[in-house]
Amino acid sequence: xxxxxxxxxxxxxxxxxxxxxxxxxxxxxxxxxxxxxxxxxxxxxxxxxxxxxxxxxxxxxxxxxxxxxxxxxxxxxxxxxxxxxxxxxxxxxxxxxxxxxxxxxxxxxxxxxxxxxxxxxxxxxxxxxxxxxxxxxxxxxxxxxxxxxxxxxxxxxxxxxxxxxxxxxxxxxxxxxxxxxxxxxxxxxxxxxxxxxxxxxxxxxxxxxxxxxxxxxxxxxxxxxxxxxxxxxxxxxxxxxxxxxxxxxxxxxxxxxxxxxxxxxxxxxxxxxxxxxxxxxxxxxxxxxxxxxxx
Length: 295
What we know:
Helix content: 10-25%
Number of domains: 2
Structural class: alpha+beta
Number of helices: 4
Oligomer: single chain
Order of helices and strands: HEEEHEEHEHEEEEEEEEEE
Distance between the termini: 78 Å
């Protein structure tokens, strides 16, 4: 009977032990975080390099996360904010949700601070205590519960639960947005060139639907022509831009051929996040069609 009791107690101890963790975070991993001010749900999507260096307009559905964990935690995607983050040390990758009207290069000290915050978001659930995971690469934390210090909200705010949309002030712009919507994905590195540092690299755009479908499109978003004003042989073409991208105008008087074969006007400009204009001369005085080309 005594042996049975000891065995039974040992079994109870094993049952009470935390489930073995599958969460492993390494610098360079892309973190996907959802929050609503009372709960955080975080996923580790693996290496950010999976989204770097892709050709423009490369499109993929982002896997490796479970939308049902988000809906079971929050009820739905409504009133939920989303952010994507990664760090490699001096280089950081941040989602951005506001109009991009400036280069976001930062100092070496600021880059190091960003690295520390993002690294802590990935590692804090492992130390000093392994909190229970909610899946093979996910966890869900009640920011007012016993594991609050491991939460995204707590880490980025230093426990003050303020300044969260800009990572407690360490990010140069708002990094999260409401669902549904799109998030620009910026590669932000340190620069010693001031006051006009070179623009950072817009890696691509993440799109998230209200149903939880997450898609990544590499490169700059297609620019939208907002107006064309014609004066004599000059067409002034207005279009939206993103900071740092180079824009030019492709044109044709005959539709049917691939846009890739259209001639390109020699005028170009570097975007500043606002509506810009390129003046194109129509030498033939014939009807023309235009397409904004982005590099």
